[in-house]
Amino acid sequence: xxxxxxxxxxxxxxxxxxxxxxxxxxxxxxxxxxxxxxxxxxxxxxxxxxxxxxxxxxxxxxxxxxxxxxxxxxxxxxxxxxxxxxxxxxxxxxxxxxxxxxxxxxxxxxxxxxxxxxxxxxxxxxxxxxxxxxxxxxxxxxxxxxxxxxx
Amino acid sequence: xxxxxxxxxxxxxxxxxxxxxxxxxxxxxxxxxxxxxxxxxxxxxxxxxxxxxxxxxxxxxxxxxxxxxxxxxxxxxxxxxxxxxxxxxxxxxxxxxxxxxxxxxxxxxxxxxxxxxxxxxxxxxxxxxxxxxxxxxxxxxxxxxxxxxxxx
Lengths: 151, 152
What we know:
The complex is a heterodimer of chains A (151) and B (152). Chain A is built from three helices and nine strands. Chain A has 151 residues and is an alpha+beta fold. In chain A, the strands form three sheets. A five-stranded antiparallel beta sheet of chain A has the order 2-7-8-9-5. A two-stranded parallel sheet of chain A has the order 1-4. The radius of gyration of chain A is 17 Å and the shape is elongated. Chain A starts with 10 loop residues before the first strand and ends in an 8-residue tail after the last strand. Chain B has 152 residues and is α+β, with helices and mostly antiparallel strands. Chain B contains three helices and five strands; from the N terminus they run E-H-H-H-E-E-E-E. Chain B has a five-stranded antiparallel beta sheet, with helices on one face. The longest helix of chain B is centred in the middle third of the chain and has 16 residues, at 72-87. Chains A and B meet through helix 1, helix 3 and strand 5 of A and helix 1, helix 3 and strand 2 of B.
């Protein structure tokens, strides 16, 4: 492993406004990624390992939430005091097909201060190359890690 | 003795899955996971190859926590697994909404829990709404929320 943290983001998150778009990502979910996921989570569903009723191997429905987190920190700098992943919503529309290119777009959709933290909501949409919607996600991160009211 | 060992990587389907007769109050078969640092490091790719507070004690402690914190998404994946096992293809058209209320650390044993709280009928289609949560080995809830899926 490399010895340092690598957050590549350069935009200031706390001053970013609602509607601020995150740099989109295009990716292909590979067989290796899905198999690694199966080993890490002990989830050996044959739909992920061999074949599914959807015409090929698929990835687990929640698979891309990890990637959206990476998207956030490859776009924004981590605020002083760090933060926590507070909430997550998924809307599953289509299966995530292994080997198919998807595009993930995201933006800030809400910012609110409560209980000693700044809560920032990010909305993400996963689409196939023809624009078909696959998964919608909403992620809420709260900053700082230790709530100001608890200091 | 002719007992054969069971492959620990064999798929374990649920004994009872969602159907049109699933009633409110039905408790879905739990799934238990033993979380280890190895599993946390194995989870996904590029990020886990960089030392961070999700996989390294020294960095976690420099951030003010005693142990690395499990990626919240890794714990959510357990609920995703449960959705697929219970609803089958009917997870499409459904959703999952959770709040993370307590950190999860290496050596925690996490169990998913789910109970059917509502049936929604539209024409021939039946949807089930579930209360969902994950507990640690102390019986403390670490993630709570709601999920839904369709019954085929």
